[in-house]
Amino acid sequence: MQKYLEKATSFFEIPIDMRSRLLILLAAAMLLPSFFTPMWKMTLYSNQFPDGLLLNIYSYKLEGGKTPNQDDLKEINSLNHYIGMRPLLNDDFTEFKWIPFVFGGTILLALRVVVLGKMSKLVDLFTMFSYFGVFSLWSFYHKMYIYGHELDPTAAIKVPPFTPPMFGHQTMANFEVYTYPSTASFFIAVMPLILLLAMWLSRKTWLNEH
Amino acid sequence: MKYRLTLLMIAVFLTAIFVGCGGDKKGRGGARSDVQEAAQKTYVAPGDLDEYYFFASGGHSGQVYIYGVPSMRHLSTIPVFAPYAATGYGFDKESKAMLGGYTWGDVHHPALSETDGDYDGRWLFVNDNANNRIARIDLRDFKTKQILGPIANISGNHGSTFVTENSEYLLSASRFSIPLPKGRYEKIEDYATKYNGVVSAVKIDSKTGNMSVGWQILMPPFNYDLGDAGKGPSNGWAFWTCYNSERAIGKLEVTSTQKDRDYIAAVNWKKVEEALAAGKAKMVDGVKMLDPKTAEGIVFLLPIAKSPHGVDVSPDGKYIVGSGKLQSITTVFNIEKIKMAVEKKDFTGNEDGIPVLNYDAVKDAEINVGLGPLHTQFDDKGYAYTSLFVESAVAKWKLGTWEVVDKVPVAYNIGHLCAAEGDTKSPDGKYLVALNKLSHGRHLSVGPSQPEASQLIDISGEKMSVLYDAFTEPEPHNAQMIKADKLHPIEVYPKEENKDPKAIWDVKDAKVVRNGKNVEVYMVLVRSSFEPNKIEVNKGDKVTIHMTNIEQTTDELHGLGILEYNINVVVDPGETKTIEFTADKQGVYAYYCTNFCSALHQEMQGYMLVK
User: Residue A210 contacts by C-beta under 8 Å, 6 or more apart in sequence?
Assistant: First the structure.
């Protein structure tokens, strides 16, 4: 046990080599798309909407597909009101206020690791971001659950409470709904992998030197 | 000539008998075509779109009807000069004001706006033969945006609305000469001396499309019939046919057909602009009027065989093609020869100071096309297509060689004809629609009030072939056919563009404001409710309702109908409309959504309570 802890402690003391520092910079850059591309994408198809109604979820806003002839977010809200779902309004999502802030903070922390160059700091970064990632996913799921469950009891059309899908396809009334992560999420998913790679490479360098 | 006329008269007589005996159901010899091929060429599968828009004038219905080509399906109706309950046109404040109290108009000749002699897809202009008006339809939203008129000094605006090469002007003219300015009485016996015709141009603002009367020319008391604007080498010229150069009154059928020749009036509008700049115009009823006696070189008369009807300029702008209903020839004039004759002053007479050009010097050809030629359209291969009213046929002939190469019978008595972009500098060929006056026996009988017939003709090959019979709303005179990809209509009015100060966008802002006897209602229409859904007023109150349809989705229209109050409005997505009325009937009156909107459309209702 003692030996293991010592080994662990010494692991935390490993300096981060140059190559890994560059990788951490790259990992931080993976968060940048979240400031301008969507994290999640929901598409609703039906007979009347063969091209689908599109909902893009960014880290900081909701945005419906918009053509000169259709505002998808407005249309989704118009349709949802029949089942008593509350309208999807940007102001109702506190996430949009703190998520970009956390991304910003994470980037700063990553820069801190690059400068300080210590494995412990890198592990902090990895752990915090992983926790944040899992929490965000839960938060998103919870939001979906709330929207699908807290339906106005006076709604014109009564439907059993439901949770819209987070991944994949679901049939909801006359709509075929497809939900998938979008651009920003793919980058974000790569980010911790790069961090792990940086850890492994630095450890390898250290082992070679000792 | 005499012999030919006799023949013609017999033909007219026989046609009359034939038309009169329309009851013979077996006798619909009309046009037949290879059925399978025709079906394939006109079939537009469910969900597929047509290739061309076809804008047909609605005659005395006052409206414009849109069809798709080649399917010939009626797509929509654009209300213009008459109220149209289906879209609430003429019920709300704005459209009511635009109609100016008139409940009908007579749409004859739609004209698409042009840039460099080609359709630019911006506006469609239509004339009102009855009340001397011209309307502009914006092709961005397919709505009537402006009605100009009744235009001063114009009486019977038939020779309208042909546009110039870059839509600088559209044409307007008096079909029925009257004493000018309007409102003056002169004995009908003094027709020849105290009555006048007018040919005119309406100026089009190149940015907004806004129309205003540009200028007018005081003309002898003939009947100015149809027109066309020049293009290419004839750009700067405008042409109108005229009948009754006899200046006759009474039974014109006889009195106006005595002389062997009538005229085409050729106006040099570049010279008109010079004369205006030189201050030669007088103001008549608020409009700049030029008198050819004092403004030389602005107008000339081309003699043409009697009672001409259509005049059409060829795509290259070189030829001016005139046809008369009482002859079997179509006359082709050459713009270069006209210019030459004008320069050389090769005149053979004059009418009230307007020089008559030497016929032999300006004409290029007389083509024996058939009986009762009226109008001519063009294709992309150098052919012209002339409608033959008396003969019930279309003649195809070659520009330059002047030989008639094909003829196809139509059912029956064709008036105008409309080829795909057939009056532009670059016609498409392909399709031609015959706009026929009579249709009896070609459709299930619908009683004495018979529809008109529009027949789609394939003109892509050497031989013309009739593809399809469509039955159009009364009464298609002329039409315009434009390639579908030239139009890009919106289907929702963007919220940002709604500048109506009375618009509201949130149900929370819906309210009823009382100010003395004036009650103003700010209403939101959205699936599936009116907000407010209750309006309380006192008998005698003046009620104003501002309705905003806050939907931003295509096809989500809402209507407001108030029972027994004769109120019916349809509001498009993103649009605000206002209605005004006096609550002069006591009681409780429901209002409801007239335009089906959603599963809970029936529930979209409210009450107006009048105390």
Answer: none
Nearest to B551 among A78, A82, A156 (CB): A78
Domain ranges of chain B: 31-486, 495-610
Q: Give the Cβ contact number of residue B48 at 10 Å.
A: 10
Q: How far apart are CA B418 and CA B430, in angstroms?
A: 11
- The Cα–Cα gap between B443 and B450 comes to 9
Measured CA to CA, the distance from residue B7 to residue B13 in angstroms comes to 10
Which residue is closest to A80 within chain B, CA to CA?
B527
Residues of chain A neighbouring B551 (CB-CB closer than 8 A): 74, 78
Question: Are B172 and B201 spatial neighbours (Cβ–Cβ below 8 Å)?
Answer: yes
Contact list in A for residue B492 (CB cut-off 8 A) is: 68-71
Residues in chain B within 8 Å Cβ distance of A75: 552-553
Which position has the token pair 């940002």? B496
Task: Check: pTM over 0.80? Answer yes or no.
Answer: yes
Which of A69, A71, A157 has the CB atom closest to B490's CB atom?
A69
Distance CA B479, CA B418 (A): 6
* Count of positions (residues) in chain A: 210
d(CA A167, CA B107) in angstroms, rounded, equals: 58
ipTM field: 0.73
Q: What separation, in Å, do the N-terminal and C-terminal C-alpha atoms of chain A show?
A: 22
Both ends of chain B: CA-CA distance in Å?
78
Query: Residue A4 pLDDT > 90, yes or no?
Result: no
- Give, in order, the Cα–Cα distances in Å from B169 to each of B97, B130, B202, B306: 25, 21, 5, 28
For residue A2, what pLDDT band results from cuts at 50, 70 and 90? confident
The verdict on a CB contact (< 8 Å) between A68 and B553 is no
Asked if the bond preceding B532 is cis, omega within 30° of 0, the reply is: yes
Would you give the distance in Å from CA A191 to the centre of its chain? Answer: 11
The per-residue pLDDT for range A84-120, each reduced to its tens digit, is 999 999 988 888 988 999 999 999 999 999 999 889 9
Within 70-89 of A, beta carbons closer than 8 Å to B belong to 70-71, 74-75, 78, 81-82
Report the range of poorest mean pLDDT among A140-154, B119-133, B136-150, B175-189.
A140-154
Q: Which CATH superfamily is domain B495-610 in?
A: Cupredoxins -  blue copper proteins (2.60.40.420)
A174 touching B (Cβ < 8 Å): no
Residue found by looking up tokens 């909902």 in the block: A55
Helix ranges (H only) for B21-92 are 35-42
Pairing of the two strands A53-57 and B373-378: unpaired
Which of B23-27, B369-373, B565-569 is the least confident region?
A: B23-27
CA–CA separation, B54 vs B22, rounded Å? Answer: 29
CATH of domain B31-486: 2.130.10.10
The alpha carbon of residue B41 is apart from the nearest alpha carbon of chain A, in Å, by 27
Query: A116 by DSSP, 3-state: which?
Result: helix
Query: Tokens in use for A192?
Result: 């911790």
| Confidence bin at B260 (pLDDT 50/70/90) | confident
Cα-atom radius of gyration of chain B, to the nearest Å?
A: 26
Closest residue in chain A to residue B140, using alpha carbons only: A68
Interface test with A, best of B549, B552, B556 (most A CBs within 10 A): B552
Nearest chain B residue (CA) to A81: B527
